Structures are given as structure tokens and as C-alpha cells.
UniProtKB/TrEMBL annotation:
This is alpha-L-rhamnosidase. Residues 1565-1627 form the Dockerin domain. The keyword Signal applies. Keywords: Hydrolase, Signal. It comes from Paenibacillus silvestris. One of its GO terms (molecular function) is carbohydrate binding.
Length: 1627
């Protein structure tokens, strides 16, 4: 072998020396000037990299963060280098107390020295103890793979916050408590109506636990009771009195009554309907506030309405009055105002108290700066929300601070450097204080979940240049006003702003605040203050409206074109007092108005009252909305596109990922995923941003965490969320279902609580962040203990949410719960190992194996079937490694079978969807994964996109154009959970995968998955080490992959191919490339190890075809009217479920009756006559032809049955789907059904339905529409009768049978038409004596219809034929009768035509029983022909073509030739004659046709076909390509053989065959340039072939053999070709 290699090397040297001699010839022979320089140039990989550098310094994943309270901040940096296989081998970090010291390379706080380590992510600070409010400056330098040292990085810094409780000198401040007047003499009048159970009126309220409640109760006893209550603070019933004499039984409900309460000191008298019912003594409370209490629980639902409330003092002066006349102004903020009454019931909170009007507080503090300032830092937070300003300028860019936490546990504070905002002398701090999550509406929990009113805490530390310090703190010296412009501001309800109340310059020095009150100090916060964790909420971008519509006068809808979260900035100009209302919604109703039904109790409404005087700009402060559309009302003038700007708001998570593919729908899906994340990652990962929920559902978060981490840098965002989870963890270890925890939702549900384990693991995996594991470890241990304790034999009990919102495929919850128990345990074992706790790692590994065993024993049978037999059940078992190795392929197959059984659609809900495509791909079913990804029919991601989605929807069918909106109770159009497929798009489609052994993408797995007929996929991900890129393309059998691996990391690259020798990098064979090492073949992928750098791989693929397996033809219309058009849709699928690209297939459409409807080559249908027609498409793909049909009924008149009364002797009613009225309602989705019967035979007890047309009128056709929503077990039409009679009758008399149908069995899925002789009648009856087959999901036989229609069809004659013919061409004209319902036994037809334009040849009958009896002699009467015909086998079926007149065109003419049929005479069996009006037909005669072009093209195509060879090598054609071309040739041949072919058909056939031939030629597998011997590589063997053909030219008769050696394509094989090929070999 060695000697052979030596010979080869010698031969190579000789060849190269020859080429060097050639290269010295004149340049006109060979452009070889770059050849020598390229061969002499050293490889970049062999040169020391002097350009590497340190970049992107971050502390706690932030650039120069302010206000940290972690004592060991994590430092990260990246290595910058373009060289391959570059890595860090050591680093040195310097941390200094001043930038000056750091510039002198002095780390007086920490000098790590040179540490031999490749770690550059999350390096924990290890210097001196950090001090409160100190700023620390740092830099780093590194050593590379050759031990070369970099320059120092640029300086970065971080600043500590307040580290100890004693560092806080500020006090919590708020609006002082309202003083309740001590008024004990007053009267209250009100009207009330009990709607259900009771009405409760509250008065004397001092707060939410001290008040009176007077109740009239009609539920607890058989009679009406007066039940006065007192809360003080516990509730008690003072007494119960029977008042049935005043409110009798008949007046208990829905009857208005009047109540008067007269308070005189300690005596309270109560009147109902002007009668005294009680007097009692009690002096607990003074006047106080009023309100209502309407209780609801499982047993009681108290509902009542109230009106005309009046309160007067002892002198009769009015203290309060409310008649609820304005529905937009509800003083109580709850219930609904309807018909001038306040209706209360089913409230979020039982108690409704009228609050005093108190605008959003404005707080200010004036102070003086007397000497130069070195640094000033504000530390601020709130129980609620706050905005700060300094000297009239906003502090910071954050919104909705301090964010949402469980305020009972902890609250975050924010830090701001305000040094540059201070002025010498007088200064002022200003603050706005909003309710936010603390005291505003939260989800379905109502208001005041955490507290009654917002509070603020602020401390400004000032350090002067002389070294002295000062503090400005929140305390009683601050001033507060509640008379400002923000009337109300609520996260769910919106904001009301009255610009007329603006206090000019209120946050500037010198403002006169003497009318302001002193702040009240409070000390009720018992939680922990922590520094901001992760990103704050900020305004990220702005959107402008695309269009304005006006659905109703004065109402303007502005469409931003994108569902988003934030608010709208309003620009307006108008008179003072004008009120503009902005309502926000995600969708529009069909009438163009704003859709808000899905908001539930959330109002999402902002109101702005103008101050007047010019242009005004308004943005809300303490609210946010989920919306695409903004509705403007009250706008002065007409708004423009500039009147509104959408301000997009979310947590400031830095974008890290991008994704793009050749599939535009998938690109939109990616956009929807990203926008869904933007809209819901707002302080916490909420489920939805618009309705009254917006909670941090943990199950949603865990399934989406991986996708989220690719899209954006979510490391610290999720770390904060884990604090929320820990703060909500129960004492028993149960994690909450929502975080921050709310008591209205539970704890301990699997898949939701498991987020406490899955999210930390995901953060670690994506960011190499051990601290998230360490911080959460004890909490995670408690969770696993909780699961184990609350299991039986390691099987978790049933219950919980399960696979939420699956598509009728419920996975048993004990399967789901146990799977997640096992999964969390497996992850715990891994995380214990990560932090060095090997004992726990072993313990949890053992526990996982025990759960796995229990899972298999309980849920898995011997053949690998899993309990429930659901898609998600199999997905979870495979994803979570719960099955023995031998059962995993079986489970994967069952999963695919389940998908195929749903016509290649998914049925997974929230839990299954994220793992579905990864599981399929890992199991070898990547094409199925791609198919699910690209589906656009329900249920699929594409279905929502097809219906207009710009974000991910909560449901697979939140809206459809056919069915409208989904369940308004839970129908979000921005709900990221189903977007968890984004993980697969990055990990598998693009192939950027993390390695858990080297997390944070220290080692990346590049594993692109080719499929789905995608031409390319590309993605980028900015990891903690730098940017990773992957872009693959497929062109025929050629594959290319461009990938970038950041410095200081490595990667394993999987290149798709069956032959590793076809793989090249940078155009070179792998063994010639530095830094790329072949590892192994893994199935159909070659595996390589690479270092950092950019790589360009190419390979050849073996394309394995999957045969065409199904074709589906669909239409939006089942019924049409003459003259209508519709576009048919064709879907063709391969055997593996992948949808065929129809551009690569042949589709031929046909109409069963062109007299009813025609169809063009593109599938566009046009209806021309009454009747039923079947449209068929034949699809040919890779040699396989399949067909599909669609039946359409075409009417040309009025449906006489539409909306008319229908009745039956046997019917079921299940509203709204099943009802007898549905038979004639025009809605095919609402149906009629009889009851169920065990037998098909109903002859002894016929089932009938009757339609009353309303009056006697003529009709002759009945059309019956079968139900199509459910088929029989063998896929046929269900419940359509096989034996039935059609009967009619007039107003009186007996029914007459007009048609008998027996053995109806040839239903084709469409409407069924039944014709009979014209009858004058009012009633139509269908009498069924034999049922058809039952649906697959039923156990009874029934008579079921979607619709019944009745028509009176006009009688007419029809002539049809080609629209144009060529001179000398023979053609046919078809004759038929249409709409004739009488029996026809004989016909007399007379035709006339111009004998100079066309010639009559003969006539043929098109029916066996129709005989041509006589034809007149046209020679005697040129231009005239009379035809007599008779029916000998029964009466005529008149609605089909009857005769074919064979004609020949004569000379071409610009004037169309016309054949006229005069009046037709026919006779029935009794000899009665009838005359029908005739018709005419015209045809354009053109020049003679020429078939020679097509014949020559056929010969050329056949020759190309016969010479071609299918295979995978260069010059060969893909498998199936020849069959496709042959099918096109055969089709063209049939056109040539057709004597009646038109020129138009000839031209069409020529075009089609030309296209097919071009596609065939383009499919040839192209050889790699220079690969002359076809071995798929460029080597010395190719050089030898070029040398052997030296001197050949394009004039040589065998040039086709030599041409491959003409490397530069100049028509001659010479030294230039040898030199060019040599350059390719050398590289």
C-alpha cells in the first residue's frame, strides 16, 4: 500500500510540474497567474491568530447593570476571532474600585491572576466582599489555543444596590386614609328587583370588613325574608323576618320594589314598598360608604338589579344620587347597566363598595443641592406601580415597575443613576402611583388581591465630590395630590385621563403645592425587598396603522396589521371637553365592528378628555392591552393613520434568534411565535395579554421555555420567574399552577408544577447557568418529595389539567401525571450531578427507574400500546424515556398511525405539541414532522395563519371563516403555548442543538433535518459564547450547509448523505481540510467534529421518492347558482403524509357535464346550467396517477323550500345542531335527524318529513343534501335512505307519489337531485321505508339530512360544442333537453346552417334506447336537416346529451358559423305532443390546424426519455422522472390522434409537453464541475481524462462525448482546461 501511495505521489508531482511549465506560456493560453499564489498561500489554520480579542462583557447577563444585590455577580465575555478552532485556554479578570485604577491594570478588589480555564460564561466573582451602592469596574484578558495573550478588554462595570435592610432609610408612603364623616342621621332610598335568590344592599361601610348589609332573601325559606347583617369584622345575621305580606310569592322575582332605610342615631328603621318592616337599635357605624353584596357559590347565585339610589341628610339635603341613566358611567365599577338599572350577579367579588373618586396619586418632594455632585442613585419601588420624574423629566425608560410579584413575599426595587438630572440649587422629585397588580384588578380575582391602595418606597443616595453624602427618602414630608388628570388607571380595565386636570410643572422646583396633602407613612409591608432580577418592562418598538375603516358612523377602526401588546399613543386636536374613547381588540366581527366578547370582564378601554388649545398627545401610564385593532369614538374630526401609534411593550429580553425557510407560511408561523412571546413575556410569562386572566401559568411556561430561550435571552427573566414559583410553593412542597401565586388557582398539578424543575434545567442547558440549579435545588427536592408522597405505587393519581385543549384526544391524566413525575425526577438526577451532589444524583436516578417500571406495568401492554391510545400519550412516553428500548419503535409507529388516522393531523394539546415534532424526528419520521408543520387545515398552525393569525392562538380553531369565533369564555388570540413548535424549528429544522454535557452551547450539535420539500432553512442563535449560524439548501440531490461556530466552542456537525466521500468542505475533500475530523456515519448522515469558525459543507443526497397515495379535491361551495364561479383546491399527499408540490405534478380537470359546469386547466369552475355535476381532477406525480371528485349542485331558480316550515313524525332536537327546522334553513352545518332504530327496515313504520311551501305552486325537482360531517365505517355517506317515496299534495286532498327511489346506493358525497313531472302542489313529503348505513360513531340507524330544496326547472333545449375549429376540421355538436320532466318517446328536430361555412356529415344517438328514425336529405336542401328520433326502451332521461351532430368546418371566416335549432316537438307515451323553444350555437372557424410542431416535439421528448437513465449519479435522472415525462408524452400523443382537436387544444398540448420536457431536462443530476469520470469527486483521474481528450473541439462529430472535459466551456479542450482542473484539485 505504501509503495502504491508513493507512485501516486510521484505521478501527482510530475503532473504538477507539467502544469507549472504550461503556466509560463502566454496568458492568452492560460490565465494561471493566481494558481501559483494560491498553491503557495499558507492555510489560515496554521498561522497564529493575532486578531483574537475579548468582547461583549456582561454582568448578570446585563451590560453595566445598576443596583445588584447578588454578592457573587456572574461575569461573562466572548472571544472574538475569525480563525478556525480558536479557543480560550486561560483568563485573567481585574476588578477595581475606580476606572483609573483599572486603567493602570490594578485590580484592588479582585485580581484573579492567570487561571487555566476555558470558562467565559457565568464566571462567579471571587474577590473582596462587595459593598452597598459601590460601583465596580472590571476587564478581562484571555490566552488562546497557542497560549497567545489578548489585549485587555474595554472596561465594564456594575453597581451594587442596597444589600441590607438597614441600608434602607426610607418609609413606605401612600395617600392617607379617608376620614369617614361621623354622620348618624340620614336616609337612603333605592329601588331593587330580585332576579334570583336575594338582593343585598350595603351601607355604613367604614372599610371592606366593617359595614351593614340589608338583605331581602327569597331562597332560603318558602317566603320572602328581611335579613339584616353586620360585618364587624366577622359577618353575623342580626335577625330574620317574614315579609311575605309585603312581598308575596308572585312578586318575589322580577318585580320592582322600593326600600327606605332611615337612620336616626342608634335607631334604624326599614321600609319596603312604603310599609315599615323593622326597627332596630345599633350604633356601630356612621354613614360610611354604600354598595352591594351578591353572593355566588355552588348552591347559591344571588342576582338583583338596583336603581334610583338617593341619600339625604337629616335636613333633606342630597348627599348622593344615582339613577344609572348613563351606561358608560358606573359609579360602583361592577355589574352592568342595562335599561337604566345596575344589574349585579356572578361578580368577581361578592362585595361591591362605591369608592370615593380618587385620581391616580401624584407625589412630589422638593429638595436642594448645595454642592457639586459626584454620583446620585435613586432606589425605588412600589406596592402597585410607579413612574418617577426629576425636574420635569422622566427617570429611566421602564414601564409598569416594579413588576408583578407576590407582594406578601417579596417586591423588587429598581435603581437609577440620576447624577446628570440634578441641578444646583432647587430640585423636585415627582412620582405617579398606580394600582397595578397590587390593588387593581388581577385576573379573575377582582381588585385588592394584595392590598387596598398603592404605596411607594424611594431613597436617593447622593455622594458629593467632597466625599460627603446625603439622602432624599420617602417620608411624611412628601406631598400628595389626588386631583390630577389620571382619573382611573387599571391593568385590565384601562385608563381614564382628563387633560383639563393637568397640573402644569407639578414635578418641577418652585411649584406651589400648598393645596397638596402630606403623605401618609405606613409600615404594613412584611415581605422582602430585593433588587430587580432580570429585565424590566420597556417600550420596544412602534407600529403604525395600515388602514382605517368606518363600520358605523362616528366609529373608526384602525388596523395595525399585527396583534401586539402595549398601548396606543393618541394624537388629537379639538375643543376642550371632547372625550375620545379608545377600545382595543384582537379581531373584528363579520360586520367590521370590534370583537371584544373574548375579553370577559376586562374592558381594555382608554378615555382621553381634551384640554383644547392645539395638538395633544396622550399615552396611558399604568395599563396595557392586547390588540391589533383600535376603535376610536368621539374623535373630533376624522382620524388619520397618524392619529394612532401602537407602542409595543414587553420585558426587555434581548433578541437572540432568527429563523427563515423557503416556506412562507412557516416563516409567518415563526413571526407569530416571536410576537406571541413579546406579547406575553411582560414581567412574568402570562398566558394571554387581553382578557381578565393574564396569569403566569406554569404549564404554559415550561412547555415554551426552550423556544423562548432560542428567541430571546430569557436567562434572568426565568430566574425571576423561579423566585415567583418558590414564593408560591406550599408548605407540602406543591408548586403553584400560576406564579405569582393566586389563591383562586391551585397547587400541585403535574406538568404545571413541574415547571419548577423543567425551567431551571432549560435555563442551565441554554446558558450554562449552574446558579439557577443551586438557588432552586431545595425547592425542587420538596416538589419531588410531594409527588412521591402523593402517589400510589409511584403512580400519580388522576386529576389536573392534563393535555389542555387537545383535539378530542384526551390522554388519561394518570398517564400524564406519572410521565411528568418521572421526567422531573430524571432531570433532578441530572441537575444533582451538575452541582456535584452525586448521592442525590444516584437516588433520583434510582427513583426514575422505579417510576419507569411502574409506568410500564400500569400503562403499557406487551406490544407497546399505552393506556388511552392518544398522540400525546405516546409523545410523552418517548420524550421522557419511559419505554424499554424494544418498545420505542413500536410506540413511534403507533404515534404515526394515530396521526395518519386523523388524515395526517395532530390532536395534541398544550403538553404534547412541544414534544411532538422532536419525538417524530428522533424516531425517524422527519417527513411526518414536516407535514404537520406545513398543514393548513384544521387542526394545524397553518390553519390559524390561513385565517389571518399574526400571533399564536389559544385554540387550534379560535376563529374560522366558516364557523366564526370559538368559545368566548376562553378564546385568546395571543397565547404562546402552541408556539412551542419553535423549539423544533431551531433544534431540528435548522439543526442548532445544545449538548447537555457541555451546556450553553459550549459544544453545539449542528444536525439539520432535510425534508418537507423545503429548499432551504437558515437560523442564527446568539448564545452566551457568540453567534451560531446554520443554513442548509437542497438543489436536486445536492446539499449544502453553511455553519458558524463561535470562538471558544466546538461542534459536532451532521451532514446528510449516504456516502461520506461525497462530502466536501470549502470545495475540498474532508481529508484535505484542517480542523474538520470525520467521526462516523450515523444512518444517512456523516458526522464531523469541528472547532470554531465558519464552514461550508456540500454533499450528495440519495433522494428516495415516496409514491403518491391520495388526492383530495375541495371547494368552498357545494351549491352554486348558474353564472357563479369557484376555485377548486387540490391537495395531493405522498404515502409518508407529505403534501406534494403540485407545480411538480400534472393536474387534469374534467367536468362530468359541461352543460352544467365547465372547469379550466387551473381548476376554476363556471356554472352554465341547472343540474348536478361532478368535477374530477387527475393528478400524476412521479408515474402515479390518482383522481378525486367533487359533486356540485347548480340551481337556476329560487329554492322554494328555503325558510319554509318542516315537520316530521319522528325527530330529535339537540340544539342547535339537530332540529327539524334545520331541514330548510339553508345552513348545511345544522341538520335534521330522526330517532335511532336498531333495524334498517322501516316499511311497517315509515319515517317521513314534510315541507310546507306556503302555497300551491309548480315544481319538478327535489334536492336532498346528505350529512357530510360523519361517514360510515367504510367511509361512505351515512344515514341517507336507500328506499323512499317522494309525494306531493295541494292544500287539500290526498298525497300523490311522484317518484319512487329504491336501492339508492351510489351516493358520491354531494347533493342528490330527483326530477319528476311538473306538479301543482303545496306540500312535499319524503317517506322513508329503508334506512341507509349508520355513521361510524353511532349505534343506530337513522334518517338524517343536512338540507332539502325544491325547484321548478324551466324546459329548454341546449346545443354545445367547441368554441373554435380550424378550416377542414371535423367536430361534434351535442344536443340535449334540459328541465323536461315529462316522458319523451319521440322527437322532431329541425336544424339550419350556412352550407358555405359548415357541412353536416351525420348524426348519432348517444343513448342506447334512443333510435334515429329518419334524417332528411341535405343534398336536396343544403343548409337544412330534419331528424326524427324515438325511444324504444322506456321514457327518455332528458337531462343528458342525446344526439351528436357530426359537422365539418369549411373555409375560415371572421364571422362565426351558426347552427340554429327551431322549435322542438316531442310526444309522450299517450301521443300528446308538446313544443319547446329552440336554440342556436356558434363556432369560430379559423385557419387549418398544424400538428407538425407537436409531432416533432413528441419525437424529441421520446428520444430524450428513451436515452435517459434513472439513478443518483451525475448525468442520471431522479427516480420517477421518466414516468412523469412519459405521461406527458402520452397525453400529447392522444391530442395528435384526435381528429376533432382544435388549434387551441393543440397549442395547449404543445405548451404542456414543452414544460414537462424542460422540467425533465432540469432534473438531471449535475456533475460536480471537473468531475469528468463521474465518481462524485475531483481527482487526478479527472485530470487524466482531460489530458486524453486534449485538442478536441466542438466541431468534432463526437463532441457530446468530449464536452465534459471542456472545463472553461470555450469549445476547445486545451491547456486552459488542464490548468483550471488542476486548480480545483489543489484547492
Amino acid at each position: 500500500m505504501a509503495s502504491q501511495r508513493t507512485k501516486q505521489n510521484k505521478f501527482k508531482k510530475r503532473a504538477l510540474s507539467s502544469l507549472l511549465i504550461f503556466s509560463m506560456l502566454p496568458t492568452m493560453l492560460v490565465p494561471a497567474t493566481t494558481f501559483a499564489s494560491e498553491s503557495e498561500a499558507p492555510s489560515t489554520a496554521n498561522v497564529a491568530d493575532t486578531t483574537f480579542r475579548v468582547k461583549n462583557l456582561k454582568t448578570e447577563q446585563a451590560v453595566n447593570p445598576l443596583g445588584l444585590d447578588t454578592l457573587k455577580p456572574r461575569l461573562s465575555w466572548q472571544m472574538g476571532s475569525d480563525a478556525r478552532s480558536q479557543k480560550q485556554t486561560a483568563y485573567q479578570v481585574l476588578v477595581a474600585s475606580t476606572p483609573e485604577l483599572l486603567s493602570q491594570d490594578q485590580g484592588d478588589v479582585w485580581d484573579s491572576g492567570k487561571l487555566l480555564s476555558d470558562q467565559s460564561a457565568n464566571v462567579a466573582y471571587a474577590g473582596e466582599e462587595l459593598q452597598t451602592s459601590h460601583r465596580y469596574y472590571w476587564k478581562v484578558r484571555i490566552w488562546d489555543k497557542d497560549d497567545q495573550m489578548s489585549d485587555w478588554s474595554v472596561q465594564a462595570w456594575w453597581e451594587m444596590g442596597l444589600l441590607k435592610p438597614s441600608d434602607w432609610q426610607a418609609s413606605w408612603i401612600t395617600v392617607p386614609n379617608e376620614q369617614i364623616p361621623n354622620n348618624r342621621k340620614y336616609s337612603i332610598d333605592l329601588d331593587f328587583t330580585i332576579l334570583e335568590a336575594a338582593a343585598g344592599f350595603v351601607f355604613g361601610s367604614q372599610d371592606s370588613s366593617h359595614f351593614y348589609m340589608w338583605q331581602i332573601n327569597v331562597k332560603d325559606k318558602p317566603y320572602a325574608q328581611f335579613r339584616p347583617h353586620k360585618w364587624n369584622p366577622n359577618p353575623s345575621v342580626i335577625k330574620e323576618k317574614n315579609i311575605s305580606s309585603i312581598i308575596p310569592d308572585a312578586a318575589k322575582l322580577n318585580t320592582a320594589h322600593h326600600m327606605k332605610i332611615d337612620v336616626n342615631g342608634d335607631q334604624i328603621s326599614t321600609y319596603v314598598d312604603q310599609q315599615l318592616i323593622d326597627t332596630l337599635q345599633d350604633s356601630s357605624f356612621s354613614l360610611g360608604k354604600i354598595g352591594f353584596r351578591q353572593h355566588k357559590d355552588n348552591l347559591t347565585n344571588e342576582r338583583a338589579s338596583f336603581d334610583n339610589i338617593k341619600i339625604k341628610d337629616e335636613n333633606g339635603n342630597s348627599l348622593f344620587t344615582e339613577d344609572f341613566s348613563n351606561p358608560d358611567e358606573n359609579a360602583f365599577g361592577a355589574g352592568k347597566i342595562e335599561n337604566g338599572q345596575l344589574v349585579l350577579g356572578e361578580l368577581a367579588s361578592d362585595l361591591v363598595i362605591k369608592q370615593s373618586e380618587r385620581h391616580v396619586p401624584q407625589l412630589r418632594k422638593a429638595f436642594t443641592i448645595t454642592k457639586p455632585v459626584k454620583k446620585a442613585t435613586v432606589y425605588a419601588t412600589a406596592l402597585g406601580l410607579y413612574e418617577l420624574s426629576m425636574n420635569g423629566h422622566r427617570v429611566g425608560v421602564d414601564h409598569l415597575s416594579p413588576g408583578w410579584t407576590d407582594y406578601n413575599q417579596f417586591v423588587q426595587y429598581q435603581s437609577y443613576d440620576v447624577t446628570g438630572m440634578l441641578e444646583s440649587g432647587n430640585n423636585a422629585l415627582g412620582a405617579l402611583l398606580g394600582d397595578g397588580w397590587y390593588s387593581g384588578h388581577v385576573a379573575m380575582a377582582g381588585e385588592h388581591v394584595y392590598g387596598q391602595k398603592p404605596e411607594m418606597l424611594l431613597q436617593m443616595n447622593v455622594e458629593y465630590q467632597d466625599g460627603t453624602k446625603d439622602q432624599i427618602v420617602s417620608d411624611a414630608s412628601w406631598k400628595i395630590s389626588t386631583a390630577g388628570p389620571i382619573v382611573t388607571s387599571d391593568l385590565l380595565m384601562g385608563e381614564t385621563y382628563d387633560a383639563r386636570n393637568e397640573l402644569q410643572a407639578w414635578d418641577k422646583p418652585g411649584y406651589n403645592d400648598t393645596d397638596w396633602i402630606a403623605a401618609g407613612t405606613v409600615n404594613d409591608f412584611k415581605g422582602k425587598l430585593i433588587a430587580q432580577v432580570g429585565p424590566t418592562v420597556q417600550a420596544a418598538e412602534e407600529l403604525k396603522p395600515k388602514v382605517i375603516t368606518v363600520p358605523t358612523p362616528g366609529t373608526y377602526i384602525l388596523d395595525l396589521g399585527q396583534n401586539m401588546v402595549g398601548w396606543a399613543r393618541l394624537q388629537v386636536n379639538g375643543p376642550a371637553g371632547s372625550k375620545v374613547k379608545m377600545r382595543f381588540g384582537e379581531m373584528l366581527n363579520d360586520d367590521g365592528t370590534l370583537y371584544t366578547a373574548n375579553l370577559r370582564t376586562a374592558k381594555q378601554t382608554d378615555e382621553y378628555t381634551l384640554k383644547g388649545g392645539g395638538n395633544e398627545v396622550y399615552e396611558p401610564h399604568f395599563t396595557f392591552h392586547g390588540f391589533r385593532y383600535v376603535e376610536l369614538t368621539g374623535y373630533p374630526g376624522v382620524p388619520t393613520l397618524d392619529s394612532i401609534t401602537g407602542v409595543v411593550v414587553h420585558s426587555n429580553t434581548e433578541p437572540t434568534g432568527t429563523f427563515e425557510s423557503s416556506n412562507s407560511m412557516v416563516n409567518q408561523l415563526y413571526s407569530n411565535i416571536v410576537w406571541g412571546q413579546k406579547g406575553n413575556f411582560l414581567s412574568v410569562p402570562t398566558d394571554c395579554p387581553q382578557r381578565d386572566e393574564r396569569m403566569g401559568w406554569t404549564g404554559d411556561a415550561q412547555i415554551f421555555a426552550r423556544t423562548a430561550s432560542y428567541n430571546m435571552n430569557t436567562m434572568t427573566f426565568f430566574e425571576k420567574y423561579m423566585r415567583d414559583m418558590m414564593s408560591g410553593q406550599g408548605s407540602d412542597g406543591a408548586y403553584p399552577d400560576v406564579a405569582p401565586y393566586l389563591s383562586i388557582v391551585g397547587r400541585g398539578n403535574n406538568a404545571w408544577g413541574d415547571a419548577g424543575v423543567i425551567v431551571p434545567w432549560t435555563v442551565y442547558l441554554m446558558n450554562n447557568d449552574k446558579r439557577v440549579i443551586e438557588d432552586n435545588y431545595a425547592s425542587m427536592v420538596k416538589w419531588i418529595d410531594y409527588l412521591k408522597t402523593n402517589s400510589s405505587g409511584l403512580i400519580r393519581p388522576e386529576g389536573g389539567f392534563g393535555d389542555w385543549l387537545n383535539v378530542d384526544d384526551n390522554t388519561p391524566t394518570d398517564v400524564v401525571n406519572t410521565a411528568y413525575f418521572a421526567y422531573s425526577t430524571m432531570l433532578m438526577s441530572k441537575m444533582a450531578k451538575v452541582i456535584g451532589n452525586n448521592a442525590d444524583a444516584q437516588k433520583y436516578e434510582t427513583l426514575f427507574n422505579d417510576i419507569r417500571t411502574a409506568f410500564n406495568q400500569r400503562f403499557v401492554d406487551k406490544d407497546g400500546h399505552i393506556k388511552g391510545e392518544t398522540q400525546t400519550g405516546y409523545v410523552l412516553a418517548l420524550q421522557m424515556n419511559l419505554l424499554p428500548e424494544d418498545k420505542q419503535p413500536l410506540a413511534a409507529k403507533y404515534l404515526v398511525d394515530k396521526i395518519k388516522g386523523r388524515d395526517w393531523h395532530l390532536s395534541t394539546g398544550f403538553l404534547g405539541v412541544g414534544y411532538l415534532l422532536p419525538v417524530l424526528t428522533k424516531a425517524g419520521y422527519s417527513e411526518v414532522a414536516y407535514h404537520l408543520l406545513t398543514n393548513d387545515t384544521y387542526p394545524s398552525w397553518g390553519y390559524s395563519i390561513k385565517n389571518g393569525a399574526t400571533t399564536i392562538w389559544e385554540r387550534w380553531n379560535s376563529y374560522t371563516k366558516e364557523g366564526g369565533f370559538g368559545d368566548v369564555g376562553m378564546n385568546s388570540f395571543n397565547h404562546y403555548s402552541l408556539g412551542s413548535v419553535g423549539e423544533w424549528m431551531y433544534r431540528f429544522a435548522a439543526g442548532i442543538e445544545a449538548d447537555s454535557d457541555q451546556p450553553g452551547f459550549k459544544h453545539t450539535i449542528i444536525q439539520p433535518t432535510v425534508g418537507g420539500e423545503f429548499q432551504y432553512v437558515k437560523a442564527e442563535y446568539d448564545s452566551i459564547y457568540g453567534k451560531i449560524a446554520s443554513k442548509w439548501q437542497v438543489d436536486g440531490n445536492k446539499f449544502s450547509l453553511e455553519t458558524t461556530i463561535p470562538a471558544n466552542t466546538t461542534a459536532t456537525v451532521y451532514v446528510p448523505t449516504d456516502d461520506q466521500h461525497t462530502v466536501k468542505e470549502g470545495g475540498k475533500s474532508i481529508d484535505e481540510v484542517e480542523g474538520v475530523r470525520f467521526v462516523k456515519m450515523d444512518g444517512d448522515k456523516a458526522v464531523y467534529e469541528v472547532g470554531s469558525g465558519s464552514y461550508s459543507f456540500t454533499s450528495l443526497l440519495t433522494i428516495e421518492g415516496s409514491p403518491l397515495s391520495s388526492v383530495s379535491l375541495t371547494s368552498d361551495q357545494t351549491k352554486m347558482i348558474v353564472g357563479d364561479t369557484t376555485q377548486l383546491k387540490v391537495t395531493a399527499k405522498k404515502e409518508n403524509g407529505v403534501t406534494v408540490d403540485l407545480a411538480k405534478a400534472q393536474s387534469v380537470f374534467k367536468s362530468s357535464d359541461v352543460n352544467v359546469a365547465t372547469v379550466d386547466a387551473a381548476g376554476k369552475v363556471k356554472t352554465v346550467g341547472f343540474g348536478k355535476v361532478k368535477i374530477t381532477v387527475e393528478v400524476t406525480y412521479e408515474g402515479v396517477t390518482l383522481a378525486s371528485s367533487k359533486s356540485i349542485f347548480v340551481s337556476n331558480g329560487k329554492n322554494l323550500a328555503l325558510g319554509k316550515n318542516a315537520s316530521s313524525n319522528n325527530t330529535i332536537t339537540v340544539a342547535p345542531t339537530w332540529h327539524i327546522a334545520n331541514l330548510t334553513d339553508g345552513n348545511f352545518d345544522l341538520r335534521y335527524s330522526s330517532n335511532g332504530f336498531a333495524s334498517k327496515d322501516t316499511a311497517n313504520n315509515p319515517i317521513w318529513v314534510e315541507i310546507d311551501l306556503g302555497s300551491v305552486q309548480p315544481f319538478n325537482n327535489l334536492v336532498l343534501y346528505p350529512r357530510l360531517d360523519s361517514k360510515t365505517v367504510d367511509g361512505n355517506i351515512a344515514s341517507f335512505p336507500t328506499d323512499f317515496d317522494i309525494q306531493v299534495k295541494a292544500d287539500n286532498g290526498e298525497y300523490k307519489t311522484v317518484k319512487q327511489v329504491r336501492g339508492e346506493s351510489n351516493l358520491d358525497g354531494g347533493p342528490q337531485r330527483y326530477s319528476f313531472e311538473t306538479e301543482q302542489a303545496r306540500y312535499v313529503k319524503i317517506v322513508v321505508t329503508q334506512f341507509g348505513a349508520m355513521p361510524h360513531d353511532d349505534i343506530y340507524y337513522r334518517f338524517q339530512l343536512a338540507e332539502a330544496e325544491v325547484y321548478n326547472v324551466e324546459e329548454q333545449t341546449v346545443l354545445t360544442g367547441p368554441s373554435s375549429v380550424s378550416s377542414g376540421q371535423a367536430f361534434d355538436i351535442a344536443y340535449r333537453l334540459s328541465g323536461v320532466t315529462e316522458s319523451v318517446y319521440a322527437q322532431d328536430l329541425s336544424f339550419t346552417y350556412d352550407p358555405e361555412q359548415m357541412e353536416f356529415l351525420s348524426v348519432d344517438s348517444l343513448l342506447d334506447d334512443l333510435k334515429i328514425v329518419a334524417v332528411s336529405d341535405v343534398a336536396k336542401n343544403p343548409g337544412k336537416v330534419r331528424i326524427l328520433s324515438a325511444v324504444v326502451g322506456g321514457d327518455l332521461s332528458a337531462n343528458v346529451d342525446l344526439l351528436a351532430l357530426h359537422m365539418r368546418a369549411k373555409s375560415a371566416s371572421s364571422v362565426p358559423a351558426t347552427l340554429t335549432l327551431s322549435d322542438v316537438i316531442f310526444a309522450n307515451g299517450a301521443g300528446l305532443e308538446k313544443e319547446i323553444e329552440g336554440t342556436s350555437y356558434s363556432v369560430q372557424i379559423g385557419a387549418p390546424i398544424n400538428k407538425e410542431v407537436l409531432i416533432a416535439l413528441i419525437a424529441d421528448a421520446q428520444a430524450k426519455h428513451d436515452a435517459a437513465v434513472e439513478g443518483t449519479h451525475a448525468g442520471q435522472y431522479p427516480v420517477g422522472a421518466k414516468a412523469t415525462l412519459q405521461a406527458a408524452i402520452d397525453k400529447a400523443q392522444s391530442v395528435v390522434k384526435d381528429d376533432s382537436v382544435t388549434q387551441q387544444q393543440l397549442e395547449q398540448a404543445t405548451t404542456e409537453l414543452t414544460s414537462a420536457l424542460q422540467a425533465f431536462k432540469a432534473s438531471v443530476i449535475i456533475a460536480t464541475p471537473g468531475d469528468t469520470n463521474g465518481d462524485d469527486r475531483i481527482s487526478i483521474g479527472d485530470l487524466a481524462i482531460v489530458a486524453s481528450y486534449y485538442g478536441k473541439t466542438s466541431k468534432d462529430p463526437n463532441w457530446n462525448l468530449y464536452e465534459k472535459a471542456d472545463i472553461n466551456k470555450d469549445g476547445i479542450i486545451d491547456i486552459a482546461d488542464l490548468a483550471a482542473l488542476a486548480r480545483l484539485i489543489i484547492g
